[in-house]
């Protein structure tokens, strides 16, 4: 199983049921080993995922789960970029757009570029993103 497929499998499993960090660590041990991650890095990755929510398991431990209803309600990155550009009224550098996104939203410049290329309302001009 490739590294990306493993990450997708973890995400899909968390959509079905809540899992503790220990369960995730044990069930996908080979993947974490291939990635070179320790348990603290897996926990940090889970905490950085905007769709992953923490709840208490029956035994009182933290459990991680994806609430599909909440994930579907969130706006996509393209919508957020369009809203920011409309508010600014001018083209903006990608690096500046990253800092304007809502707190807790983890994105990189390549992610912004990909979102802009897939959204007909957006256009890249060098380092600047503008409305088409």
Description:
With 132 residues, the chain is α+β, with helices and mostly antiparallel strands. The chain has 8 helices and 6 strands. A 3-stranded antiparallel beta sheet has the order 1-3-2. It is elongated and about 50 Å long. Mean pLDDT is 82; it is low at 69-74.
Mean pLDDT across every amino acid position: 82
Largest sheet: 3 strands, antiparallel
Radius of gyration: 18 Å
Tally of DSSP β-strands: 6
Main sheet: which strands, in order across?
A: 1-3-2
| End-to-end separation | 40 Å
Core attributes:
alpha+beta; 55% helix; 8 helices; three-stranded antiparallel beta sheet; 6 strands; 132 residues
Summarize the structure.
This protein has 132 residues and is of the alpha+beta class. It contains eight helices and six strands; from the N terminus they run αβαααββααβααββ.
Topology of this structure?
Elements: H1 3-16, E1 19-20, H2 21-27, H3 29-35, H4 39-48, E2 52-56, E3 62-66, H5 68-73, H6 77-88, E4 92-93, H7 94-100, H8 109-117, E5 122-125, E6 128-131
Antiparallel strand pairs: 1-3, 2-3, 4-6, 5-6
């Amino acid at each position: 199983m490739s590294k990306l497929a493993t990450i997708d499998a973890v995400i899909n499993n968390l959509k079905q049921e809540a899992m503790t960090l220990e369960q995730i660590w044990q069930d996908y041990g080979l993947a974490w080993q291939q990635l070179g991650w320790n348990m603290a890095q897996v926990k940090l990755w889970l905490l950085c995922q905007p769709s992953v929510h923490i709840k208490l398991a029956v035994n009182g431990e933290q459990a991680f789960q994806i609430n599909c209803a909440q994930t579907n309600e969130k706006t996509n990155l393209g919508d957020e970029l369009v809203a920011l550009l409309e508010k600014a009224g001018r083209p903006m550098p990608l690096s500046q757009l990253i800092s304007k996104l809502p707190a807790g939203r983890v994105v990189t410049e390549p992610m912004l570029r990909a979102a802009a290329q897939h959204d007909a309302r957006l256009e890249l001009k060098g380092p600047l993103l503008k409305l088409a």
